[in-house]
Amino acid sequence: MKTTSRILLLFSLSAMLASAQTIGPGTFKHIVIIVQENRSPDNLFGAATTGNCPPATEVPFETGVDIVNGGPAKQKGGAVQCTVGLDLESKSFDPSHTYSGGWVPDYDGGKMDGFCQIQKDGVCVQYSYVEQSDVQPYYDIANAYGFANYMFQTNEGPSFPAHQFLFTGTSAPVAPYNTYYLDFVAGNPPSSSAGCSFGSSPPSPPGWVGPEGHMFGMDVAECYTHDSLVTNSSGDKGYTWRYYAPTAGSIWSAPDAIPEVCYGENNLNNVGQPCSGNEWSSHLSFYTGKLGGAPIFNDIQNCQLQQISWVIPDEAWSDHPGNSGLGPSWVGDIVDAIGQSYKNSGGACDYWGTYSSTPEPTAIFVVWDDWGGWFDHVLPPDVYRSPSKTSCPTTVAPNGWGCGYVYGFRVPLLVVSEYTQAGYVSGACTNNCPQAVFPYVHDFGSILAFTEYNFGIDFIDQAGDLGYADYNAPDWGPSRNNIPLSDFFSLSNQRGFTNISAPKGAGYFEKYYSETHSKPTGPDADGEE
284 forms bridges with which residues in the sheet? Predict the structure, then answer.
């Protein structure tokens, strides 16, 4: 399929569906994707005042939310393990969330009972919830805007492949080949040596997984040729974008692993050389000791917000266990900066969209990159496995895509916009949970697909095989007659901004960071996951 044909297909689909949707293409002038760290919904939002355990019961913090307070653990004889409270910044426990050491035993072939691999003082700490007072801004965002019951990470593993899926829709080499590779990057390379500039054969390459779901070693780096939401083999797709990351060469800086962004060419000729070129210098915004949390705030204040932004925290405001616990404030302050942009910029820009005659409405997606090893009770929608090492047949997976590494566990998703109903719950439960049914099952590809729909961007695919998460997002539906994530938006519900009360203001992060950090490290203080 030629590129022109694919563009026509996408626009024809958008035009056909626009009349059936509550929101049309082009509604948002900006989309901001904030990627937090390592939490499941049951862990992050499980601090409710109702529900006894055992048995495990629903403990929603608002009507329709699917959260439970415990689940079975095979390591404890199959009995229900009750959740316990744990501080967000607790340094005492960091569950494994690797593919082989975390996901495989946690999932346990669909039994969802392997979350008690390690006990502390006789307690399965993976079965825990974060104290609500530690994450109150997240509760406030969910109550003021939208919460997804059934958002699943596309991959079955830790941060590096998760960030690849959120930026490129895959962790497999794809373009410029005629067919995509079936082997996905399953794990993390060393956190300080990730990306194209560290060579094609690093000392410790990441693990890979094949269509059967088996891990194997491959003596190649995580630098490989594929396209992304915003780039293809010819360069940028014509939309402005910026990727805010703590530091280059880390597992959380997804563009580093794409030679098109790193070198301005979609081949491996320069692997091992420092990233350079126009795309790299134009689109990557790294933190410094003086501007640790501030680049995104500065761009909003100065009316320089790009059409599409990815925002990655440094460890000071990451939700990864063992950090400062400032993540909820940091996220709340980004939301407030966008909602109050008209006032704060002296009327120069209106990124919320209801306060000026030249509005620039913004949609904000706050998502967590992986489940972090914490308990979650909802079974992933599909876990594709092939009987063959060399194929992912359509009899096993739709479109013959994803075998070996799709889908992972639930992660939280918060959606903020002037078109999002206060307290909306995607896939809200009534009498029974879970209600993980179409169109309320989402994954990382859903964010990419909605962004494409909004801006009229072509599918990521450049080879005709459609082997990326955007095309395969579960909320397209079997007839592909629904725009992913469109249930979060309603034109009839346009509304003013609801402020999020964050304990620390945006200016605090710059001061705190400059006083406590000599250099950025990435979202995880120990630098591994």
Answer: 243
Residue with the two structure tokens 């895959």: 170
| 174 in a structural domain | yes
Q: Is the peptide bond before 439 cis (omega within 30 degrees of 0)?
A: yes
Is 477 within a domain? yes
**Overall domain count for the chain:** 1
- Taking the CA atoms of residue 209, residue 183, residue 254 and residue 442 in that order, the dihedral angle to the nearest 10 degrees is -80
Backbone angles phi, psi at 166, to 5 degrees: -75, -20
- Please report whether residue 63 resides in a domain: no
Return the pLDDT at 194.
Answer: 81
Residue 2 has pLDDT above 70, yes or no: no
- In the chain, the percentage of residues whose pLDDT exceeds 70 is 89
Question: pLDDT tens for residues 428-481?
Answer: 998 788 888 999 999 999 999 999 999 999 999 866 777 899 999 999 998 888
**Residue 485 · residue 475 · CB < 8 Å:** yes
Q: For residue 330, what are the domain limits?
A: 3-39+134-372+386-516
Number of neighbours of residue 278 by Cβ within 10 angstroms? 10
**Cβ 369 vs Cβ 331: under 8 Å:** no
d(CA 367, CA 404): 23
In a domain, 327, yes or no: yes
Report how far residue 529's alpha carbon sits from residue 98's, in angstroms, rounded to the nearest whole number.
8
Q: Residue 352: which of 364, 368, 341 has the closest Cα? A: 341
Give φ, ψ of 162 to 5 degrees. Answer: -60, -45
The answer for residues whose C-beta is within 8 angstroms of residue 373's C-beta and 6 or more apart is: 38, 94, 95, 96, 97, 102, 106, 115, 126
